[in-house]
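note to self: dont lose this again. the chain is below, predicted strucutre after it. 242 aa total, dont forget to put it in the shared folder this time
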Amino acid sequence: MTTSFDLHAVKAMVFDTFGTVVDWRGSIIAEGNAYWTPVKGVNVDWGAFADSWRGKYGPNMNKVRTGELPWTKLDDLHRMALDDVLAEQNVSGLSEDDIHHLNFVWHRLNAWPDAPSGLARLKSRYIISPLSNGNLSLLTNMAKFAGLPWDCITSADLFQHYKPDPETYLGAAAILGLEPGQVMMTAAHTGDLEAAKKLGLRTAYVHRPHEGGPGRERTMPAQSDFDVVASDFRDMASKLGL
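---
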């Protein structure tokens, strides 16, 4: 692969996490069908439940971004959204402990199959870290659960800003002691990468066509849109010469 930049100038790769590294939707569906329906009697369409829950993610973060809410970590935004979804889906009979445990399903998300081994290959050259809107405790628990080999964790609550605020991308570079051009933002979402690119970060796209479930498949962008465009993390490692 011919690249338009010096691969060795990049010192760190930072990663969007939900949908890029872990399969949030499939994980919620799997836990719902394996535990919440048979054990706790929550009879819902878990795909629709996951979609509704995730659908409140952006609007709730925007309330923080615009000052309607004070800084609020993602665990608490998830809980606000979960309370709404449980009411919308007419789910009752769960204890407070049950609801807390369900809310923490975001700490128990499964990695995409290529992620642990692909990340390990990328780690052989680069510092690797999530750069996620998840809070630090969430990302730490997720890494333990899913076997993600991060060198460190950078999260929105370190900067008290959510992506795509510039403070997140520039803060990640600063906290790693690097210039923006020495950091490669890696994501399955083009908007995340475009925001990072405008601030001088390098960009790597990984394709997760089925993140949103049936009927919501994504098209891979052109190879020229970002510094690296790959089908998964193993392909990304190969394209980076690892």
